[in-house]
Amino acid sequence: MPELRTRGRVGESVPRPDAPAKVRGDFSFGSDLVAPGMLYAKTLRSPHAHALIRSLDVAQAISMPGVRAVLTAADLPGVRLFSLHDPPDQPVLVGVGEEVRYAGEPVAVVAADHPEQARRAAAAIEADYELLPALTDPVEAIRAGSVLRELLIRRGDPEARAEVVVDGYYELGQQDQAPLGPEAGLAVPAGDGSVDLHVATQALHVDLGQVEACLALRPGAVRLHLAGVGGAFGAREDLSIHIHACLLALRTGRPVKMWYGREESFVGHVHRHPAQMWYSTGADRSGALVFVRATIVLDGGAYASSSGAVTANAACFGAGPYRVPNALVWSGAARTNSVPNGAMRGFGAVQTCFAHESQMDALAARLGMDPVQLRLKNALRSGEQLITGQRVTGAAPLEELIRLCAELPEPARSGHRLSLPGGAGNVAEAANVVRATGFAVGFKNIAYSEGHDDYSTARVRLERGPDGRALASIKTAASEVGQGVVTITQQIARTELGVEEVVSLPADTTVGDAGSSSASRQTWMTGSAVQLASRRVAEEVLRRAGPPARSLDAGQVLDAEGMALAPIELFLEEPIEREFEYHHRPTSGLNPEGQGDAHVSFMFVAHRATVDVDPEAGLARVVEVATAQDVGKALNPLQVHGQIEGGIAQGVGMATMEEIKQREGKILNASFTDYIIPTALDMPAVSSILVEEPEPDAPYGAKGVGEPPLISSPAAIAAALRAATGRRLGRLPVSPDELAGLAECEPDWEVTPGVSPSDGRRRQR
Amino acid sequence: MKVTVARSLEEALADPEAIFLAGGTDLMVGVNFGRERPEHVVSIRGLSELGDTSVGERVRIGGGVDYTRVLDALGEHSPALVQAARTIGSPQIRNAGTIGGNLGTCSPAGDTLPVLAALDAEVILRSPAGERRVPFSEFMLGPRKSARRPGELVEAVEWLDAGPSQAFLKAGTRNAMVIAVANLALVVDRARKAVRVALGSVGPTIIRALEAEDLARGLFEESGWERPLRPSQAAAARFGELAAGAARPIDDQRGSAIYRRHVVAVMARRALARTGEVA
User: Fold this and answer.
1) B207 and B143 share a domain?
2) Chain A residue with minimum CA distance to B264
3) CA A757, CA A130: separation in Å to the nearest integer?
């Protein structure tokens, strides 16, 4: 008799349910939403990085053809500030007598019958600004006390001495999440004064709380629905069109569609924090780390957003996944007059990984040691402590990752001209090319930290479907942002219920909070909620079936020997529905010494990059990125590999080309013409190994997998580029100037690693 | 906004104020950025009068020929233009953008323009008054400024076949689909004993590196025009320096002046070595 086993369980590479529609172009994204009679909205934004609004005259705009509403701060009904941060600090609209604090900050919104009418009306609003000096140097801001958060981690002897010491200065440019779908949504007013907002977002309930406060409506009068998300990567954690679209819909009584073009999107969402980092790393002659001291300065931009958590992450992971007995790390985010920075895949850990891994290579060179051996010697193990004093209690297979990644076969040389550095540009010939490899490791937390009560809610229902057979449905508010949470939760429900027919209901705020699709947390958090809700449903089926029923599989109720007793649907005369709210183990804050069990779990990763460089022409191509990643358990190996390839693509971009360039707070390259991201020709081959050491507490032992591919891949690429050129390359993205030896990254400030930059001095050049 | 789909050259030229639309790879970017709000757009896509190509002693490419068709039509001819067309955008862009559009927009970063300069091509402009021929050296006047008058259409571009000794190189920070940080075309017309070097993205117009041309002409004169040229390291370096010296680059969001000048020298040396090999 064949074994009874449900297909599409956890561990299988189940295809995504949304894949065919996306491939065919049928999938409806937020920007595709339509409603009868809808209006189009446009935002007027400040052209200045810092200015006082002296007056706003909307008289002409409101009288223009097709214009239905023009709203300014004077029209705001509720709380005037919003933020992910508590208390909120970001104005919904900046009003007369108030200051705009970044170029691109919203000042007024318009709704009109046609998008062009809305655009013209926004342009016709007369805004009179008094220009104020813009603060754009984060170190200067910190020295002036303009700080969003600063913290210190002190462990062991902060003044420890070591036999071998390397010092270095590192910088990261500002990376954009570059989701292909810009911000978009549709607000539909109901007749009773309530409103439905369909929006592409990472976190429906996090948005909801902010929108409700600013609209000042009765509880339950705002309902959020997830619209099709065209990529997120952190760019959709903060509000964008949400409040503006709702205000206009409520004012006009008509549905209002609002979406940003690419140029507007660059000022319409937060970006990755640019970083300046001063490091000192000490080891004994055997290579054992003695101390890490670091000063990490992040540019937080004009408003708080998630700068606080990013600042903490940069510090917590700032010494790398190593045994570091003595540490002194100062980390701070400056409040400046730049577009706010906030969440992006890797969330603080990316910035410091580049620095600590560059330091490890410099240390290896000084010691005459192989860089892989130096990392193996210091690799953190389960049971050991981070620089925050937190003991890693779960899986930490870092040594295995390093060994496996280093042993992966190196890529062959391609004979194709297009695969030379510079590609289609036809500059390099094989004789100009140097090949080299670089190695890096990284780690990061999963889910929310520092005492945040992190939870997710799932409702699972089992009933007879239209064909009479058992059908499970899953209801959560988890945002499917392309990462595959819908696929994973369906696999979990199949595994727990033994039912193959599983559907996911639309994500909205009629069910409890699922938290955000960020911090690599949804598999763990919403996965656990679905798993535990499903188990309660399964228990009820077994209760109804009575003894000897023991388990469910392949649509059958089974006995202790695995023999089928009856089809599940037999016990579904009444549907079964259970809800579960899953909370992860509580974490604690960091004390004034930066000590505390702030994180629930950690993901580790190793990367080896192989590059071809034409050093003379300053051109490079990443040939391959090999990786070994700590995944706990791959619930869907295909999706894990998808996350690995996508994260590496963003890592390649960050290391070699992606940077938002600003002058005095104004973005110079707000388009995909000049903010360039990797093409298919820039994407390296990816060779990956998944290391499955189950994580206690996680569903089926699965860790998050989304962020690690982007944490140490940029550092590994930088190491390879250094090996190929012999240049210092202290800044990402690496510029052609640096590759060709025409320029070097130098700090503007002299800062002692581990000490606040308030004590630093401007360098004479 | 009024849109006319022209069915003949005559219709296309009826309104001298109209903006021509072929592939739209420049115009629509301007519209999307809100920089352009044309009153009257005349679509010239598919006009047979603009679509002819002929290859022989004299090479002619119609203004409406897209880059993919440039690649197909030229084959082995004018290899520098083939290389330039290959570097433009993505396959989708190459299927839409036209050589007439590259000339009409006249951006210093236009990838075919240094090649047309180095081929000493002639731009054929058409208006209701008739045809006007302008040598490329007199065509480009500044960034996005050309000798084309309102209402004139780029009907075609023509040049004398200069043989196979030519090269186009383009430096950018991405391996495909990138706007040039600097580009360079070198044409060695061995039959006519001429060398032309043109630089793009390193000044307000395409720049001919005349001193570098003189040096190279001397080298070919010395080694024999019909024979391969293997310049000494010193001669190649001097050629690179002279080419870089002709550049007038600026710092902008795409690249620094210092890198642009440096990479022009590198590209020039390599271009000379490559064209020297082909006799």
Assistant:
1) no
2) A617
3) 31
A618: pLDDT strictly greater than 60: yes
Does this model's pTM top 0.95? My answer is yes
- Does B186 contact chain A (CB < 8 Å)? no
Report the complex ipTM.
0.96
Q: How far is CA A713 from the centre of its chain?
A: 15
Q: Are residues B25 and B77 in the same domain?
A: yes
With H, G, I as helix, E, B as strand and everything else as coil, classify residue B143: coil
Q: Which helix (H) or strand (E) holds B85?
A: helix B79-87
Decide if B200 touches A, using CB distance below 8 A.
Answer: no
CA distance A416 to chain B (A): 13
Q: Which domains does chain A have, with CATH numbers?
A: 19-27+455-583 (3.30.365.10), 33-133+177-268 (3.90.1170.50), 275-448+591-750 (3.30.365.10)
Q: What band does B75 get if pLDDT is binned at 50, 70 and 90?
A: confident
Of A621-635, B25-39, B168-182, give the lowest mean pLDDT range.
B25-39
- Contact list, A674 vs chain B (CB under 8 Å): 179, 253-254
Report the C-alpha gap between A228 and A201 in whole angstroms: 9
Extract the tokens encoding B215: 């040096």
**Predicted pLDDT of residue A3:** 67
Closest CA to A721 of A620, A588, A570: A620
Taking CB atoms and an 8 Å limit, are A424 and B29 in contact across chains? no
Q: Give B32's pLDDT tier (boundaries 50, 70, 90).
A: confident
B170 and B148 in one domain? no
Looking at the structure, tell me whether residues B33 and B149 fall in a common domain: yes
**Residues B84 and B128 placed together within one structural domain of the fold:** yes
Whether A2 has a pLDDT exceeding 60, the answer reads no
SS3 A76: coil
Between residues 218 and 277 of chain B, which touch chain A (CB distance below 8 Å)?
252-256, 258-259, 262-263, 266-267, 270
State whether residue A621 sits within 8 Å of chain B by CB.
yes
Assess whether B190 and B207 both reside in one domain: yes
Check whether residue B206 and residue B147 sit in a common domain: no
How confident is the model over A102-136, as pLDDT tens digits?
999 999 999 999 999 999 999 999 999 999 999 99
In terms of C-beta density within 10 A (0-12 exposed, 13-18 middle, 19 or more buried), how is residue A384 classed?
Answer: middle
Chain B residues whose beta carbon lies within 8 Å of the beta carbon of residue A676: 173-174, 178
Q: Do A737 and B258 touch (CB under 8 A)?
A: yes
Give the end of a domain, one of B160, B176, B208: B160
The residue behind tokens 């190509």 is B53
Residue B133: both structure tokens together: 């021929």
Whether the Cβ atoms of residue B103 and residue B154 lie closer than 8 Å to each other: yes
A425–B253 CB contact, under 8 Å: no
Q: List beta partners, residue A581.
A: A457
Q: What mean pLDDT do residues A77-103 have? A: 97
Domain count, chain B: 2
| Per-residue pLDDT reduced to its tens digit, A529-554 | 999 999 999 999 999 999 999 999 99
CA angle, residues B134, B137, B141, in degrees to nearest 5: 90
- Domain harbouring B6, CATH code: 3.30.465.10
pLDDT confidence bin for A1, thresholds 50/70/90? very low
Do residues B188 and B80 share a domain? no
Nearest CA in chain A to B180: A425
| Domain's final residue, options B114, B134, B160 | B160
**Quick check: B169 and A261 CB within 8 A?**
no
**CA nearest neighbour of B85 among B123, B57, B114:** B114
Nearest CA in chain B to A670: B33
Residues of B with Cβ-Cβ distance to A425 under 8 angstroms:
87, 169-172, 175, 178, 180, 183
Cβ–Cβ under 8 Å, residues A413 and A435: yes
Domain range enclosing B148: 2-160
Q: How many angstroms from the chain centroid is the CA of residue A33?
A: 25
